[in-house]
Design a protein that fits this description.
By secondary structure, this protein is α/β, with parallel strands linked by helices. It contains nine helices and 15 strands. β11, α5 and β12 form a beta-alpha-beta unit.
Length: about 325
Amino acid sequence: MSETFRALVLDKTDEGQRASFRQVDEDFLMEGDVDVDIAFSTVNYKDGLAITGKAPIARTWPLIPGIDFSGTVRASRNPDFAPGDEVILTGWGVGESHHGGYAGRARVKGDWLVPLPEGLSLDEAMAIGTAGFTAMLCVMRLQELGVSPQDGEVLVTGASGGVGSVATAVLAGLGFAVTAATGKPEEADYLKELGAARVMDRAGLSGTPRPLAKARWAAAVDVAGSVTLANVLSQIQHSGVVAACGLAQGMDLPASVAPFILRGVTLAGIDSVTCPKARRIAAWSRLARELDKGKLAAMTRHITLDEVPETAARITGGKVRGRIVVDI
């Protein structure tokens, strides 16, 4: 009889979907050439949408959700990995169309895995997780497009969330003056501890967007989309850059071409799901070197697998701060 392990499983029912805990074995796993004993996962906004069913994230049934995890290779038919290797996985449809991180084990393609970089532990890797990895991709893109601390302030929307918290900490550590936008005024002290130079109410980005407004920021990291992103674009300085990586407010973009053709603004899209492996390794290496571990600890709390469904509901309701690590 094969060894069993515990998993959170989503099933499709006549009434919608249902999340339940069950014991499964390796026959339940999907195809892949590397088996991983999972140590930690996280709860990201996308995980919240998947588990609550508030958006059609899950695309196969039954499904173990959880879009990222860290752990130790148990068995491998991939030449790049051997038993005992410590690895990270984010993206590639895991937790959406392939079984994800809310289980004791996973079987995935080795091409999806990244070696744990020197300087990070498995739990720190998931304190960073998909959200922090996405934040670093945003920072890298801003720098590649020429943004430097001397250019002026950088805006981070959704600053008290996972992406925003890491983006604020990393940018501040690189010498940027960060304006942190949040709908939670009670989080001002938290954001300043992460390095924000200024905290603003996100309501200032919620009105009807003007084609061009007063130029305020040299660059921005946006997780909201929709009206917020349109307002951000209208207030970026000449030749500034906005890295857009989320749709917490919506997928629409009620903006005009004015920022692009009158101020030379660049809107840079950030995709963390199918990001090439070399760039993944570069981002994780930078996170290991450049993200202050004390700030990472300050933005992180740990939960058990049993607490994931409740936390999923809280994160989609905007009631979660920073990063959540799931101790598998």
